[in-house]
Automatic annotation (TrEMBL):
Keyword Transport applies: yes
InterPro entries recorded: Cation_efflux_TM, Cation_efflux_TMD_sf, CDF/SLC30A
Protein name as annotated: Cation transporter
Domain Cation efflux protein transmembrane: 23-201
Organism, as annotated: Thiobacillus sedimenti
Length: 205
């Protein structure tokens, strides 16, 4: 076809049906867990649980974008990864701001709610990570999806640890510490995805 260059949709690879199904499952589960964690975070007054809820919402958006770009030209997948990397980075900044407010307010969260909800979230995220594991070495777009799932599972374990520490100490600083750690993880992962996507765009992938 006239005008079809290396970055056109004419050169887009056929979507992997298994990857598409995995993304749909991940999308639905993340939307459901966003609702569960959002309600629970307000009940528990937990900033780390709220941060995890916002992360679920961001990941749901990421999976939706990933589904949209399947089968498109590689350049569009790389551009999508740039957007997702920026979203991950922005999420990290949001969590830092919310954490500063929580620290100044001196709120002590409810550890039981934190622990049980983060355990449920961990099971969900581990399932999603297993579904997406085989696709982690793809382009920047696929790599960003894998990093989101991996980070979520690590974040859930951290929130569970914070719940135990809050219960043991009766203070809110463990919740604050985990929120800061989740923010740092989002910032570094977002920067890595942005860097990978820019490399692909410069290489004309």
């Amino acid at each position: 076809m006239s005008g079809c260059g290396c970055n056109s949709a004419c050169d887009a690879a056929s979507p992997d049906p298994g990857y598409r199904r995995a993304l749909w499952v991940a999308l639905v589960l993340n939307v459901l867990m966003f609702g569960v964690e959002l309600v629970s975070s307000f009940s528990a007054h937990s900033v780390s649980l709220l941060a995890d809820a916002v992360d679920f919402l961001g990941d749901a958006g990421n999976y939706g974008v990933a589904l949209f770009v399947l089968g498109l030209a590689p350049v569009w997948r790389s551009r999508s990864a740039l957007w997702k990397g920026a979203l991950m980075f922005g999420y990290g900044l949001f969590v830092l701001g919310k954490t500063a407010w929580q620290w100044s307010a001196g709120v002590v969260p409810e550890p039981a709610i934190m622990g049980w909800v983060s355990l449920i979230a961990l099971v969900v995220n581990l399932g999603v990570a297993v579904l997406l594991y085989a696709h982690r070495q793809g382009d920047a777009q696929a790599r960003s999806v894998w990093l989101c799932s991996r980070n979520d599972a690590l974040g859930n374990i951290a929130v569970m640890g914070a719940a135990g520490a809050v219960w043991a100490t009766g203070r809110g600083w463990p919740d604050i510490a985990v929120a800061v750690a989740l923010a740092a993880l989002a910032l570094t992962s977002g920067a890595a995805v942005i860097r990978h996507a820019k490399d692909e765009l410069r290489a004309g992938v």
